[in-house]
Amino acid sequence: MVYYNVRMKxxxxxxxxxDLAQFAHKQAEISKSSVSGMFxxxxxxxxxxxxxxxxPSIASMVGALKxxxxxxxxxxxxxxxxxxxxx
Length: 87
Hints:
The chain has helices spanning 18-30, 35-52, 56-59, 74-86. With 87 residues, the chain is an all-alpha fold. The chain has a domain at 17-52.
């Protein structure tokens, strides 16, 4: 039996300026897409960015370990793993 990942579509009504709506339709035509498709893709990108964005407390820690010489090469990791589990 084959299962498909089916996503339910929901209709969404937006109110925007007439000029912006015309621009959206032109952009959709240029990109060979639809306004709905472009908007969906924009929201997917926003969601991906939101998920990848760390909280301020985590973001402040980025780079905190750069001053320590850490060998994170595959060879070093394999060696440490072998030492840990060979005893």
